[in-house]
Write a structure and sequence with these properties.
The protein is an alpha/beta fold. The protein has a single domain, classed as Ribonuclease E inhibitor RraA/RraA-like (Glucose Oxidase, domain 1), CATH 3.50.30. Helices cover 15% and strands 36% of the residues. The chain contains four helices and 14 strands. The strands form three sheets. Strands 3, 4, 5, 6, 7, 8, 9, 10, 13 and 14 form a ten-stranded mixed sheet that branches. Its cofactor is a divalent metal cation; Mg(2+). This is 4-hydroxy-4-methyl-2-oxoglutarate aldolase. Homotrimer. One of its GO terms (biological process) is regulation of RNA metabolic process.
C-alpha cells in the first residue's frame, strides 16, 4: 500500500492529495471564445499547486474569515472556494492553518479577492491558492457574510456550481451546459 506524502504546518500533519487535472486557461479561451468568462483580476499565486480546477463554492465576507474557516472544515469534494473579500488588503482572510484544513477536507483551491498570510507555508501546501496580496494581520472571526451566493469581481460573476480553471495565466469559468 502506497502512502500519500504529508506536510506539517504548525504541528498539524496534512495528507497531500493528487491535484485534479486542469486544462490550461489559454487553451480553454481558444476552445470556448466569448462563451468563456475570464476574470480580469490580476491575482498572485500562493499555493503549492499552480494550476487547479473544480466546481465553484462561494463566500462573501469583508475582513472576517469566520464563514470561510467553517466551510473549509467541511468536505470539499474537489471544489474551488471563491472568496469575495471586497478586495481588502487590510486583513488576511486565510493563512496556513485554514488552508491546511482545506487540504485535509479535499478542496482543490482558493481564489481570494483579498489578502492571505503565512505565504511561505502556503507555498508548501498541496492546494491552489490565488489572492491579491499578503498582510500578516488577522481578520475578525464573527462569521459575517454569506455562503454559496453569486459573487462578482474582475468583470465576472462566480455562481456556485460553475466550473473554474486557474493557472499562471488567470482564472476562467466554463459556460454552463
Amino acid at each position: 500500500m502506497s502512502r500519500l506524502p504529508t506536510t506539517t504546518t504548525k504541528g498539524s500533519t496534512v495528507t497531500q492529495r493528487t491535484p485534479r487535472t486542469s486544462q490550461p486557461t489559454a487553451d480553454l479561451v481558444d476552445e470556448y471564445g466569448d462563451r468563456l468568462r475570464v476574470c480580469d483580476t490580476q491575482f498572485r499565486q500562493f499555493g503549492g499547486h499552480r494550476a487547479f480546477s473544480g466546481a465553484v463554492r462561494t463566500v462573501s465576507c469583508h475582513e472576517d474569515n469566520g464563514l470561510l474557516r467553517e466551510l473549509l472544515r467541511t468536505p470539499g469534494d474537489g471544489a474551488v472556494l471563491v472568496v469575495n473579500g471586497g478586495g481588502s488588503l487590510h486583513t488576511a482572510l486565510t493563512g496556513d492553518l485554514i488552508a491546511a484544513s482545506a487540504v485535509e477536507n479535499g478542496w482543490a483551491g482558493l481564489v481570494i479577492n483579498g489578502a492571505v498570510r503565512d505565504s511561505a507555508a502556503l507555498a508548501e501546501l498541496p492546494l491552489g491558492i490565488k489572492a491579491l496580496g499578503t498582510n500578516p494581520r488577522k481578520s475578525s472571526k464573527d462569521g459575517r457574510g454569506a455562503v454559496d451566493v453569486p459573487v462578482g469581481f474582475g468583470g465576472v460573476t462566480f455562481t456556485p456550481g460553475d466550473v473554474l480553471h486557474a493557472d499562471d495565466d488567470g482564472v476562467v469559468l466554463l459556460p454552463r451546459d
